[in-house]
Structures are given as structure tokens and as C-alpha cells.
TrEMBL record:
Coiled coil: none annotated. This is Glucose 1-dehydrogenase. Belongs to the short-chain dehydrogenases/reductases (SDR) family. NCBIfam families: PRK07231.1. Its EC number is 1.1.1.47.
Length: 247
């Protein structure tokens, strides 16, 4: 038996990176997985890899009508949604004087508005199921912040606050809401040039002296999506190797 048997999960930003790992691991644990992203090519390729327990649906998380369509199609294909992983995100890191209004608005629309719309739209489906778990992917920058992270941190702090508010409101319907706060994760982007060198410097200040593998985040997300975490809601789960433990 898998930890997510009989679960129907929508994962946003799932065509690549951490989202793709979440999708693979969810399917391995028995979930029916709806892979959503704006990248159709990568999303469809991932679904081909996963097999019959996954489908791809194109989703712009900042569009409420698109969300409604995805929920309806998911119910038609697999039944009511029981898990939502709000993973889609964008990071724009610039100093305050270089950060543009367009940068800030784009970050807001994907990282904050997208999470709000996902939670708002999925609730009716979870009520039909009689159970639900919403996992919002925030960041350590949703608990602290850093230079050049003003737009990103603003949106991720908002995710932290929305998670708490939604948990307080939705608990009566047996719907749990938690946030996950990754630190530095090994991704293809993190292995390139100056970024790689910068991360290697940061690793020296991480108590575990290394970055996380994507599956280490996925394992936590699976726990929160599963019934193993049935009494956890409104909480922040940090997966950062102790990076912010002394702050």
C-alpha cells in the first residue's frame, strides 16, 4: 500500500524542478496526479513517464477561470480533489532600486495570487470528498528574508499568512492547510556558473553542510498530503538543513 492510495492530487508548476519530483513521488505512493503547468511540452513528457495515474492540464495559476476548468476536469477524470500542492512560483532577486513594478506584480500574481486562487477554487471539491490537504510551498524567505528578496519574500510571507488563515477557516470541513519552507535545493539552475559558486559559499553556514535534494522536500510534502499528518494544520514545516535555526 502507498501512503497516498485513493488520493486525487493537483500539483501546480509540476512540469519540472521540485514540482516534477513531487508528481513522480506522489504517483509512486498511489495518488492520481494532475500535473499542471504552463509548459505543455515538459508537462506532457512527465505524464508519459509517470504513466496512467497521471494526466497533464495546462494551468496559468493567476487565472481564476483556468483554475475552475482544471478542477472540473480533474473531477471528471479522477473524482473530487483531496490534495492540492501549490508549488508554482517565480523568483526575481534584485536590489530595491533595480526591482521594477512589473517584477513585483509578476511575483505577486504567481507566488501569491496563484496560491489564493488555488485554495479558493479547490475548497468545494474537497468538501465533496469530505477530506482535504492543501500544501502551500513557501520558502525560508517566507519566515525571514534576505537582500534582493523583497518581492519574493513579500509573496512568500503572504503564503505563510494565508496558510494560517485558511487552516483556521477550513478545519471544520476536515480540510487541512500547511506550508512548506525549503532552503537551498539542488536543481539544474543551482548548478550553473556563479550561482553554483554562491551556493557553495552558503553551504558553509548550513548546519548540515549541504543543500537538499528535491526528493527530501517531496518526502515532507507527501507526509503532509497523507493521513499520517491528520492532526497537523496551520503549521510551517521547514526543510532547510538548519539554515535559519539561529535567526
Amino acid at each position: 500500500m502507498g501512503k497516498l492510495d485513493n488520493k486525487v492530487a493537483i500539483i501546480t508548476g509540476a512540469a519540472q524542478g521540485m514540482g516534477a519530483m513531487h508528481a513522480r513521488k506522489f504517483a509512486e505512493e498511489g495518488a492520481k496526479v494532475v500535473v499542471t503547468d504552463i509548459n505543455e511540452t515538459a508537462g506532457k513528457a512527465l505524464v508519459e513517464e509517470i504513466g496512467e495515474n497521471a494526466v497533464f492540464m495546462k494551468l496559468d495559476v493567476s487565472k481564476s477561470a483556468n483554475w475552475e476548468e482544471v478542477i472540473a476536469l480533474t473531477e471528471e477524470k479522477f473524482g473530487p480533489v483531496t490534495v492540492l500542492v501549490n508549488n508554482a512560483g517565480v523568483g526575481i532577486f534584485k536590489t530595491l532600486d533595480q526591482l521594477t513594478e512589473a517584477d513585483f506584480r509578476l511575483t505577486f500574481e504567481i507566488d501569491e495570487l496563484g496560491v489564493f486562487l488555488g485554495m479558493k477554487t479547490v475548497v468545494s471539491s474537497m468538501k465533496k470528498a469530505g477530506i482535504g490537504s492543501i500544501v502551500n510551498i513557501s520558502s525560508v524567505d517566507g519566515l525571514v528574508s534576505a537582500p534582493t528578496a523583497i518581492a519574493y519574500s513579500a509573496s512568500k510571507h503572504a503564503v505563510t499568512g494565508m496558510t494560517k488563515g485558511a487552516a483556521a477557516e477550513l478545519g471544520q470541513f476536515n480540510i487541512r492547510v500547511n506550508s512548506v519552507h525549503p532552503g537551498i535545493i539542488e536543481t539544474p539552475m543551482a548548478e550553473q556558473g556563479d550561482v553554483y559558486e554562491y551556493i557553495k559559499q552558503l553551504e558553509k553556514d548550513i548546519p548540515l553542510r549541504r543543500t537538499a535534494k528535491p526528493e527530501e522536500v517531496s518526502n515532507l510534502v507527501i507526509y503532509l498530503a497523507s493521513d499520517d499528518s491528520s492532526y497537523s494544520t496551520g503549521s510551517q514545516f521547514v526543510v532547510d538543513g538548519g539554515m535559519i535555526s539561529d535567526l
